[in-house]
Amino acid sequence: MKVFKLLGVALCFMLVASPMVLAQEAKLKFAHVDLAKLFDEYDKTKAYDKVLEADNTKFQEERNKKIDSIKELQGKMDVLKDAEKAKAEKDIETLKNEILEFDRTKRTDLTKARDEKVREILLEIEKLVSEYAQKEGITYVMNDRVLVYGDKTLNITEPILKTLNDNYKAQGGKK
């Protein structure tokens, strides 16, 4: 029985110690990046934010025109005869339904376009981080959000950000 306990303790020690020994032998190299900073300060993200803002402004202008037409009809209701009021109320209800559908469709389209662009940018960042890590012989790159502590010398955010923005500018701000 004591042999099994002794064997169990030895096995546990080997399981705990072997990764440390392997890490020392393999010369593992770690780094971390601030993914949020990479995303937010990437020129492509900033350019797309401007496009998205313009699209949203255009959507709001179209929506406001539709709302103004409803307000205009509602303002005329007091001077209309009963028969005309019924038709105007029906028109107003139709316009309200059109606005709701327009709102839903446009918001869905804008959200879908934004999500696709965010995904594209994140994949581009991930690819560049992987290429950088391979080139520099880095074994593991972690997102700094999962770190409790990370040595500042292991932070590769700035060289990655510079490369991202340089590549973006080299392509004429398009991609």
Concise summary:
This protein is mainly α and 175 residues long.
Protein model, in words:
- It is a single chain.
- The protein has one domain (2-170): Skp domain (Protein Binding, DinI Protein, Chain A, 2-Layer Sandwich), CATH 3.30.910.20.
- It has a two-stranded parallel ribbon with strand order 1-2.
- Helix 2 (35-41) runs parallel beside helix 5 and helix 3 (43-76) runs antiparallel to helix 4 (82-136).
- Helices cover 77% and strands 5% of the residues.
- With 175 residues, it is mainly α.
β-sheet strand percentage: under 5%
Return the CATH topology: Protein Binding, DinI Protein, Chain A
Number of strands: 2
- The CATH superfamily is known as Skp domain
Considering DSSP H and I runs of 4 or more, what fraction of the residues is helical? over 70%
Q: Please, how many domains?
A: 1
- Strand order in the largest sheet: 1-2
Report the major sheet.
2 strands, parallel
Global morphology: elongated
Highest-level CATH class: Alpha Beta
What value does the average pLDDT take? 84
* Rg computed from alpha carbons, rounded to a whole number of angstroms: 30 Å
Order of helices and strands: HEHHHEH
Uncertain ranges: none
Total number of helices = 5
Q: What distance separates the N and C termini?
A: 68 Å
Please state the second-level CATH architecture: 2-Layer Sandwich
Structural class: mainly alpha
